[in-house]
Amino acid sequence: MKNDSIKIAPLSKADYESWANLWQKYLTFYETRLPPSTTEKTWRNLLDNDVPIYGFGAWQDGTLVGITHVVLHPNTWNTTECCYLEDLYVSEAVRGQGVGRALIEQVYDFASKKNCNRVYWTTQEGNTTARKLYDKVADLTEMIQYRKDL
Question: Whole-structure pTM over 0.90, yes or no?
Fold first, then answer.
């Protein structure tokens, strides 16, 4: 569903308070808490042109209603970089209105312009609302993620 009232743009220094509000809601959704220093470092990285981490926002009627963060990185299976869509959050008030899709499409466009070979992401198996969208805009792989936090 295309929603022409949504404006997608890179996050800027002026967006900090609105971004921080959505970031905290995103962390709450995933039942996660981060120290303020991590949030501050994430924000600095999003604005630092020397760090391959990028942030985009979705605005509706001048209000930031969605955010996404991506990380570009090299890989061993291609000669071009991958784009990892690390975070995606849409305000509950506007879910189902095309904001998530618009953010993902922005990431696809950005990654294509950066000559990336793919965009990929993970989500919780039980995140059924988001997965309905993801099933429409990407292919579910057979890969299973293992992780050991250090």
Answer: yes
